From TrEMBL:
Family, as annotated: To bacterial alkanal monooxygenase alpha and beta chains.
Signal peptide range: none
Domain Luciferase-like: residue ranges: 20-307
Name the record gives this protein: Luciferase-like monooxygenase
GO cellular component: cytosol
SUPFAM superfamilies attached to this UniProt entry: Bacterial luciferase-like
CDD domains in the cross-refs: Flavin_utilizing_monoxygenases
Parts forming coiled coils: none
Superkingdom of origin: Bacteria
One Gene Ontology term of the molecular function aspect: oxidoreductase activity, acting on paired donors, with incorporation or reduction of molecular oxygen
């Protein structure tokens, strides 16, 4: 399995999670610190996810954070996992990412999703009369590709900067619909198995079976995002992982909170229904010491055949979080 892992690129998904007792002003420098370390440890990409109206997630202005981290690093690719395209005009996204790609050439990725990244009331506040814009997602992806195309130079509406730039577009998803779209357009596909594992295996199969080669990609390229909490021992990793379990319990119950410190045991911290819901969302999560992480990651890669793994780690203590990403990098390289 170690041979399997050594050929797999590994990347970071950051939600700019706000921990208990801190503010986004504390979170952002920690993100940059993690990105610099991730670059040193051989991580391939560092992506931010667009979310709104969540007290514990500070990545709402996604493109600004991408610029902040790209400006503070040298080689790691930085991008969106993703930009929720129906929340924005394709032209504005083209201009923003055209600007980023002009500032940091060859380092910017644009992952696109169709969900609002928030609740329905907030989605209405963002989208207004375009509330049903998700239905236009395939066409909006085409509009965006057109704005990036050099062939758009004679059009009356152009993306400056953006036009003629080679900015890799990814389709993100948590369902089979996104898999079909990515396949039809011949684009790389990233699946959100870190919170929506239900259709993961089905979506992978649909993507591969229906993939149409394009100018962007000759063969399917599949990335999966998973939760990882690594520590020097299995016991310590399980303790640190209680933070993400409590975090997701808040999502499940609708009682969101800032990322809480770890507790010694989840016994008594959730009821049987909450436990079942949280564990379902964390089906593919990997919690453990170095050997456990290596073995479980190897088994996941072997079982799914994914081309790249993206990791998100909701860990309360920043130093423990850095150590988790360092352990994973060592497992992937060994």
């Amino acid at each position: 399995m170690s041979n399997t892992l050594s050929h797999i690129p590994y990347s970071v998904l950051d939600l700019a999670t706000v921990v208990h007792g801190q503010t986004p002003a504390d979170t952002f420098p920690n993100s940059l610190d993690l990105a610099r370390n991730a670059e040193h440890w051989g991580y391939n990409r560092y992506w931010f996810a667009e979310h709104h109206n969540m007290m514990n997630v500070a990545s709402s202005a996604t493109s600004i954070l991408i610029g902040y981290v790209a400006g503070g690093t040298k080689t790691i690719r930085v991008g969106s996992g993703g930009i929720m395209l129906p929340n924005h005009s394709p032209l504005v996204v083209a201009e923003q990412f055209g600007t980023l790609a002009s500032l940091y050439p060859g380092r910017i990725d644009l992952g696109l999703g169709r969900a609002p990244g928030t609740d329905q009331l907030t989605a209405l506040a963002i989208r207004g009369e375009n509330f049903n814009a998700a239905f236009n997602f395939p066409k909006d992806v085409e509009r965006l590709q057109n704005f990036f195309s050099a062939d758009n130079a004679d059009a009356k509406v152009r993306a400056i900067p953006g036009e003629g730039l080679d900015i890799p577009i990814w389709i993100l998803g948590s369902s089979t619909d996104s898999a079909r779209l990515a396949a039809a357009k011949g684009l790389p596909y990233a699946f959100a198995s870190h919170f929506a594992p239900t259709y993961f295996l089905e979506a992978i199969d649909i993507y591969r079976e229906n993939f149409v080669p394009s100018v962007h990609l000759e063969k399917p390229y599949m990335m999966a995002c998973i939760n990882v909490v690594a520590a020097d021992t299995n016991q310590e990793a399980e303790r640190l992982a209680t933070s993400v379990q409590l975090f997701i319990k808040g999502v499940v119950t609708g009682k969101r909170q800032l990322l809480p410190p770890p507790i010694d045991s989840m016994d008594g911290a959730w009821n049987i229904y909450e436990q079942e819901a949280v564990e379902q969302m964390l089906s593919y999560a990997i919690f453990g010491g170095p050997q456990t992480v290596k073995d479980k990651m190897g088994a996941l890669v072997e079982h799914t055949g994914i081309d790249e793994v993206m990791v998100t780690s909701h860990i309360f203590d920043h130093k423990a979080k850095l150590r988790s990403y360092e352990i994973l990098a060592q497992a992937m390289r060994s």
